[in-house]
Amino acid sequence: MQPRNMSMSGAVDLSAVKAAAEAKQKAEQARAQRATAQAGGQQPEAHIQLVIDVDESTFEQEVLQRSTEVPVVIDFWAEWCGPCKQLSPILERLAEEYAGQFILAKIDVDSNQMLFQQFGVQGIPAVFAVIAGQALPLFQGAAPEPQVRQVLDQLIEAAEQRFGIVGTQVDPAQAAADRQVQEPVEPEPPSNPALAAAHAALDGGDLGGAIQAYENVLAEEPGNVEAKLGLAQAQLLNRIQGTDPDQARKAAADRPEDVAAQLAVADLDLVGGHVEDAFGRLVGTVQRTFGEDRDAARVRLLELFEVVGPDDPRVIAARGALARVLF
Known about the structure:
Blueprint: E1 12-13, H1 20-39, E2 51-53, H2 59-65, E3 72-77, H3 82-98, E4 103-108, H4 113-118, E5 126-131, E6 134-140, H5 145-163, H6 172-182, H7 193-203, H8 207-220, H9 225-240, H10 245-254, H11 259-271, H12 275-288, H13 291-308, H14 313-326
Parallel strand pairs: 2-4, 3-4
Antiparallel strand pairs: 1-6, 3-5, 5-6
Helix pairs in contact: 7-8, 7-9, 8-9, 9-11, 9-13, 10-11, 11-12, 11-13, 12-13, 12-14
């Protein structure tokens, strides 16, 4: 990932908040109020959430309106996305460290397809920023922390220079505590060292090691749902390594009879969050093929079902479509 120049050129105007001039005026007023409060010996604001979960119903209030006072960084992610699990902890930790210079808004793409499409996200994880109602892409993919810091520093500088938006002073320890109180406490799963090692390998990007580790768990516990999901994720990410998306899509379009080309694009679609497209492509491939080709497309579709989860409505719909073309 190469950090972008935060010039704001080409930013997408979301047309849902006040104009930049008004945002700048509001930010200047907020700065004056903070200066007065600090002169009076008041403590930093403690109860501003630095990391928030946002959906389509709360987007305008939590992102657009907030963006007139503080830069809002958006993390597009999904539960099944391995690289997301590498990037999200970095962003959350930096949100607390920067203590109010930006707010991190987390958006689950599976539950918020409208926002996913509105921003033109091509793959996840994807990170955008919104400043004074204007959105601009920052980077895509799991990036190392030093480069993430560089992008955030550029963003904060651009927000202040262009709009006068500097965020607010927050007690990071209290903000972290507030988030822990708000998040539901889930019981810890039973300890399984082999499964934990598999998860660690996946989170660390060791896909070969993760695949072997999950297979070892399943050899002992064939019904372990968590290991099946992890294995499917690791295999998917391993398959797309080194794939050129443009070349793969061109090959699939030029050669619709090429089953391998269709499988490759279905993988790319799923990783990019285009779940229905991936399922539809494979159902169509099953429908027009026979023998080993049909079986290869069917098996890949079942593997992608494992990645998304059996209870997902899109999986249920695709299973019905698969059954119709098979029988």
